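Task 17 of the worksheet. Students: predict the tertiary structure of the chain below and write it out as structure tokens. Keep your answer in the requested format; marks are given for formatting as well as content.
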Amino acid sequence: MPKRAQKRQTVARKRGSDMADNILIVDDEKEIADLVALYLENENFTVFKCYTAMDALACIQNESLDLAILDIMLPGMSGLQICQKIRENHRYPIIMLTAKGEETDKITGLTLGADDYITKPFLPLELVARVKAQLRRYKRYNTAEEEKQEDILTHAGLVLNVKTHECTLNEKPLALTPTEFSILCILCRQKGNVVSSEELFHQIWGKEYFIKNNNTITVHIRHLREKMGDSFEDPKYIKTVWGCGYKIET
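Model answer:
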């Protein structure tokens, strides 16, 4: 494990959080990585901080992580490539740090399996809020509410196990990111009803930072369809209701 990451882990544990979530930060801009780490440590997260892609890959391989924050622009290997590496074996949330106006990078990151992105420069508190929202959803902290809901959701060969976070289609497993799984759960629970992009945002992230013309949900829906082999023109599962949102037919 990189010495920097090891040091950060020790500091976090000294703050008294034996059950702290493990967060990986990868950014070659030392000032940004240090600042984000400080804010996360103040929230009792265990932080693994890496300035290079090689250190990050070693940390991903050797540590049990709960979330990764990846800068896209890294020397040697991009954050997008690291995202791909993570998705080969892990399903924990990934937040991408992107340059202002780089819409292509945002879409590519979401397509490769990222769950969220934030544009530089950003407010550290906003990033912390997004980290917490992603972890709440991934770790299923709202168990009291979920116990009242169905654990198994089914539709036309599609089966979602909410407790184990597993999904199969026609008995074949689907490798979904946490965000993709959440979108599918929401649509299945609202079967027959249209759910807008804004409502999907609010339910998944728990914060009202949806921006008009934000295509994050659109990209996730497209990626879901690709994984499910669903047709855009004649969908069997996720149907687009123009000007309204998305739904799964009853």
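Marker's comment: The chain has ten helices and eleven strands. Confidence is low (pLDDT under 50) at residues 6-17, 141-148.
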